[in-house]
Amino acid sequence: MATLYYDDDADLSLLDGKTIAVIGYGSQGHAHALNARDNGCKVIIGLHEGSRSIAKAEADGLNVFTVAEAAKQADIVMVLIPDTLQGSVYEAQIAPNLKTGAMLMFAHGFNIHFKEIVPPASVDVGMVAPKAPGHRVREVFTEGAGTPGLIAIEQDASGNAKALGLAYAKAIGCTRAGVIETTFKEETETDLFGEQVVLCGGVTALIRASFETLVKAGYQPEVAYFECLHELKLIVDLLYEGGLSYMWYSVSNTAEHGGYVIGDQFEESIKEEMAGVLQNVQNGEFARKWIEENKRGRPNFNARRQREHDLLIEKVGADLRQMMPFLDAKNIKQQD
Question: Which residues are tagged catalytic?
Answer without folding.
Answer: 108
